[in-house]
Amino acid sequence: MPSMPLTLCCQSSLTREGNHMKYLTLAEILQPCMGQSWAVGAYDTCNLEITQAIVDAAAADQSPTIIMIYPHHAPQDSWPTLVRLIEAEVERTRIPAALVLDHAKTLEQIACALELGFSGVMIDASLAPLDQNIALTRQAVQLAHAKGVSVEAELGHVGQGEEVLTEDQQQAHLTRVDDAKRFVEETGVDTLAVSIGTLHGLYRGKPKLDFDRLAELRATCPIPLVLHGGSDTPDPDIRRAIETGIDKINIWTDVRIPFLQSLKETLGGPIGKIEVTDALGAARMAATEVIRRKNQLLGATGKATHYV
Question: Which of 44, 61, 102, 232 is catalytic?
Fold first, then answer.
């Protein structure tokens, strides 16, 4: 399948620094959208084709993008190879991009990402007591800031869509405004993932987002706010979240499912007549189309010019 024609970005924020590409930091890529009613999409990748889909979508629509590696999807020993192929694809199109480690649980994972040239890292201690979350996040910030890298942390907890929780359990997972103020002040974190009712993966029912809580968090926190669980969340809720103060939206399931569905459909034919490149190419295009729609929904289309 032929590749999508690309429009190259005119921006010049990507340079070389030692053996690694110098990406925009997470803080740098989010700064232009704060308070402007648009957000940057953050997409996980675990292989070449999904990386190409993320990059092709951004290049076609002149959108900034955040490419993420999640340890659960990509074992740590695969990161060096994955980082190199991401770098090659970003360099091919010159899109405004940040490379972020998603949901790191340990400082060792953070240190590895810093060594590999990531421009943002997320430390996730959201299930720990507040004081422990603050302590671990502060350590991650010290490590990352020494390398000029931004840090995201999570306060409150965004669970999984398949979980069955009581109303009290759901409320307990939401981000408390007073805790957020203290957390930001004591950790020095650059971006904060907040819990307002979204979940990772697919929902069992319709999500109920607490926009009043989000508005309070936006008024309290002077840094970019992140929404995890962007997949399967209704488009009107996504737009309202952005207009209320969300600056970065994480998306995986809404990309993964069309990619796998395309593979499933292709592989349903006579196996002896199927070319690997055709199967993967079709899946790549399916993912690209979804990401382009997401970038449009987020208001990121055409915003590459903000990074010239």
Answer: 102
